[in-house]
Amino acid sequence: MGDVNEEKPKKYPNLRAPRGMEDVLPHQWHLWRRLEEVAREIFELSGYHEVRTPVFEDTRLFVRGIGDTTDIVEKEMYTFADGEGSSITLRPENTAGVMRAYVEYELYKTQKFQKLYYIGAQFRKERPQAGRLRQFHQMGIEAVGSMDPLADVETISVATQVYDRLCLADYDVKLNTIGCEECRPPYRKVLKDKLARYKKDLCKLCLARIGRNVFRVLDCKEDGCREIARKMPAIYDYLCKGCKDHFEVVKEALSDINIHYDLDPFLARGLDYYTKTVYEIILPSLGARSAICAGGRYDNLISEIGGPPTGAVGFAMGMESSMLALERAYQDKVPVDEGEPLTQVYLVSIGENTHRECFKIAQRLRAQGISCDLDYEDRSPKAQMRTANKRRARRVIVIGPDELAQGQVKLKDMETGKEKLLTEDQIAVYSQVDAANWD
Q: Taking the domain 26-183+239-330, which CATH number applies?
């Protein structure tokens, strides 16, 4: 007998997903899968190759690459000690990690110009809300190794192609340039001088940003600061010739390929590594969190983390916000809970000793690329047929005592109701042939 005093294991009846993190359940996967499949197809059609990086990195990568005055680094990173005297951080975005891999493995030595894409989870300590979570997912592309403004245009085009293929309408492309190290200093001075007049109206964070990185004031989400930012001069009058020419090519090339855009002179983006072209794709119907994709050029990031001077441009597409947009767009066409995925063949066993035969046949069909399933709950034939209907099975294989004794199965076409007795060797062929052509 066991020890009567043995402590019983603790029970935790109210365990839930952590705040700001969500499960994706089987009935929700069809739209997620559709989003990923369309994106992969278009990314690869445009010459991009997938790369996967760790979900956490050396904290210094983000502090140096993203910028220590950004909201992400100041307030939103999940950072902890790794037990070896260093600090690691769950990635709040993926571009810095991809560029770290580009430098670490010296990809520029094998081929300077690389086209890369990623799909994965990111992590930020944000206030959870619709389309914005603490664990969230992004898909993105990076065109690395070129200063060509047409590379900027290509990334915008790739993003719009994804949304167009998904039949997501009513999105807007917002476009701006934020200049470079040559033309930003005079603009920085003008901003500091003009913002000094509004110090009493700025939030505490923006007051600190004036001295550390004044451009972050333009990116503040506080209503009062946003109003003040709209009173500041646009950067266009301060652009150097190189940035001005670059931006003109971007605008003209977008028009050449019929991509409509709206200029937004106060679009700054929240990461310090951006230079020149920046853009967002927004869906106004989503309200305050309307951005579903954002990107731009980051010509200094690779040299900032130890690589050679290298031009680069890319975007990150928010998957949760894109999913929210798709669910709203498809609500009358593709219900989120539309049911089980399509099954080509469902096997129904009747009576004793037939279940194992169904199992054996299912393994053979799957090995030949035919999707199939069978009952594992010892249910009645009627209940099994209901499951076949729920699974939208095109064909049903029925094995009863008579079929088992004769070494045959009964194949039924669920659309026409037509039935045919087959040997096991004939199942795979007839499962895929139109019932009208059955002999």
A: 3.30.930.10
Strands of the sheet with 275-282, listed across from one edge: 49-50, 114-123, 135-144, 312-318, 291-297, 275-282, 172-177, 262-263
Count of CB atoms situated within 10 Å of the CB of 226: 14
Report strand pairing: 372-374 vs 345-349: parallel
Residue numbers of the chain with a pLDDT score lower than 70: 1-6, 65-75, 130-131, 270-271, 332-341, 439
400 and 350 Cβ atoms separated by less than 8 Å:
yes
Buried b / exposed e over 317-354, threshold 16 CB at 10 Å, is bbbbbbbbbbeebbeeeeeeeeeeeebbbbbbbbeeeb
One DSSP character per residue, 233-286 reads: PPGGGG--HHHHHHHHHHHHHHHHTT---EE-TT---S-TT-EEEEEEEE-GGG
Strands 345-349 and 395-399: parallel
Between helix 319-330 and helix 29-45 the angle, nearest 10°, is 110
Bridge-based pairing of strands 114-123 and 49-50 is: parallel
d(CA 26, CA 376): 19
Nearest-angstrom CA–CA distance, 327 and 168? 10
Give Cα 378 to chain centroid, integer Å: 40
Model confidence pLDDT, tens digit, residues 223-241: 889 899 889 998 999 999 9
Q: For residues 280 and 174, is the Cβ–Cβ distance under 8 A?
A: yes
Q: Are the C-beta atoms of residues 317 and 35 closer than 8 Å to each other?
A: no
The domain segmentation of the chain, as residue ranges, is: 26-183+239-330, 345-437
Contacts of 33 (CB under 8 A, 6+ apart): none
The secondary structure element, H or E, covering residue 137 is strand 135-144
Q: How many CB atoms lie within 10 A of CB 215?
A: 20
345-437 folds as Rossmann fold (3.40.50)
pLDDT digits (tens, 9 = 90+) for 7-36: 777 777 788 988 888 888 887 888 899 999
Task: Note the pLDDT of residue 70.
Answer: 61
Dihedral angle sign, alpha carbons of residues 142, 146, 148, 149: positive
CB neighbourhood size of 38 (10 A): 17
- The pTM of this model reads 0.85
Separation in Å, CA 123 to CA 57, 72, 79, 220: 12, 10, 10, 20
CA Rg value for the chain: 29
